[in-house]
Specification:
With about 450 residues, this protein is of the alpha/beta class. The chain folds into two domains: about 300 residues, Alkaline Phosphatase, subunit A (3-Layer(aba) Sandwich), CATH 3.40.720.10; about 80 residues, no CATH class. It is built from 14 helices and 15 strands. Strands 5-10-3-13-14-4-15 form a seven-stranded mixed sheet, sandwiched between helices. A hairpin with a 2-residue loop joins strand 6 and strand 7. The longest helix is centred in the middle third of the chain and has 29 residues. The protein is globular, with a radius of gyration of 22 Å. The N and C termini lie far apart (about 45 Å). This is DUF1552 domain-containing protein. InterPro entries: DUF1552, TAT_signal.
């Protein structure tokens, strides 16, 4: 009689299925000769709009002898886990006249030229979907696409370009934009709500009574604890605790949607606060990686020409408007505050990954996240010298450095390095790549 525990064990109950984090007790029961007892490598891609103020983004010095810039200073505590890469470009975003914002989002992960049309979409498969086709079959979800603003895909949003280009960074195929999920509850249920008949009704009953998803699988988790080592019991407790904390925050946004004042429009289950929304999405990415529900995820912090205001940091001018600062110091100062604020949210994500156990290390050790924009200087709509940061890799990437490549080097060259690291090797070309970047990987 078999008494092993599958590494893919989940705790199941009516309407819920909780995937488990990487536990050594589970890995040990797998066939060690298969090489599957090591945590997998995950990939993440985070996009922010409107570029960044170049001289406030770019670090001083290169190699290991560099100093973080004002914008990137929130990353200083993770110095050895961070690789700043300068000189990269997506030059196919700099064609066909007006429409730079639509093109910068469309080319960011595709490295392909976007067809200028409101309805005849064509750009290229994005790197996240390219990777998902090669390693996504090993997980329940091939990939996870998240966002803060829904936007629309129909009509024109920028100089004759379809809104799909402005509001999408992930493309399943050259003609098929991947819809992004902006509602934390929907993401949570996708990760932890089981499929099948009756599951929707069971989830609805649980939400109505505010019963935790953990309550529905309590018996199963208690049984599992008796079959795993004490170190894994602690890891399981930490994971379930973090899961419950995210669930509470998600339910807080639901409560606003379900119980609105009569004279207010019912909100669409999104936090009103940008920071809470962004951090919830980052936390959900962590949970998705932690449970090996997916190894590929992307987050679009806003549409390509977002004009969001940030009163929480005393910036009431629109983001896009400020990016066209025309050299005015007051606007540059406000724009730099936005750039730094967004970087602070990314630093929160890095901290969450680093604080989450995974195998003998942590999730950051086994995750590589690219953070950047498809424009460098929003004031001039430049598509070279892109602001790009890599975080994580646990020795697979050589962190603690600022690398400068010759101006115009394809960003797609870096994508080939990432594919290699994630196990999708022997890919010779992606987009307009002309080789791999030297000195990136260990």
């Amino acid at each position: 009689m078999r008494n092993s525990i599958s590494r893919r064990t989940v705790l199941r109950a009516a309407g819920s299925a909780i995937a488990l984090p990487w536990l050594e007790s589970l890995a040990a029961s797998a066939n060690s000769s298969s090489g599957m007892n090591q945590p997998p490598v995950r990939l993440g891609f985070v996009f922010f709009p409107n570029g960044a103020v170049p001289d406030q983004w770019r670090p001083q010095g290169t190699g290991t002898d560099f100093k973080f810039s004002p914008t990137l200073s929130p990353l200083s505590e993770f110095r050895e886990d961070v690789l700043v890469v300068s000189g990269l470009a997506q030059l196919l975003g700099d064609v066909d006249g007006g429409g730079d914002h639509a093109r910068n989002a469309a080319t960011f992960l595709t490295g392909a030229r976007a067809n200028k049309s409101e309805s005849d979409l064509h750009v290229g498969q994005s790197i996240d979907q390219f990777a998902a086709d090669r390693i996504g079959y090993e997980t329940r979800l091939k990939s996870l696409e998240l966002g803060i603003d829904a936007g629309r895909n129909a009509g024109s949003c920028d100089s004759g370009y379809s809104c799909a280009y402005s509001n999408t960074i992930s493309w399943r195929s050259p003609t098929q934009p991947m819809p992004k999920e902006v509602k934390p509850r929907a993401v949570f249920e996708r990760l932890f709500g089981s499929k099948g008949k009756g599951s929707v009704a069971a989830q609805a009953r649980r939400i109505a009574t505010r019963k935790s998803v953990l309550d529905t699988v309590a018996a199963g988790s208690a049984r599992l604890r008796t079959r795993i080592a004490k170190s894994d019991q602690r890891k399981l407790d930490e994971y379930l605790g973090s899961l419950r904390e995210v669930e509470r925050r998600v339910e807080g946004t639901d409560r606003k949607a379900i119980e609105p004042p009569r004279d207010f429009r019912v909100p669409d289950e999104k936090p009103d606060n940008f920071e809470e929304h962004a951090r919830l999405m980052y936390d959900l990415m962590v949970l998705a990686y932690q449970t090996d529900s997916t190894r590929i995820a992307s987050l679009m912090l806003a549409g390509a020409a977002s004009n969001r205001t940030f009163p929480q940091i005393e910036v009431t001018d629109g983001h896009h408007s400020l990016s066209h600062h025309q050299g005015r110091s007051d606007k540059i100062e406000k724009l730099t505050k936005i750039d730094r604020y967004l970087c602070e949210q990314f630093a929160y994500f890095i901290r969450r990954l680093k604080d989450t156990p995974d195998g003998e290390g942590n999730l950051l050790d086994n995750t590589i996240v690219l953070y950047g924009s498809g424009l460098s200087d929003g004031n001039e709509h430049r598509h070279d010298e892109l602001p790009i940061v890599l975080a994580g890799g646990g020795g697979r990437l050589r962190g603690g450095r600022h690398l400068r490549y010759s101006r115009g080097t394809p960003l797609n060259n870096l994508f080939l390095n990432l594919l290699d690291t994630a196990g999708a090797k022997d890919v010779k070309r992606f987009g307009d790549s002309d080789g791999r970047l030297p000195d990136v990987v260990a």
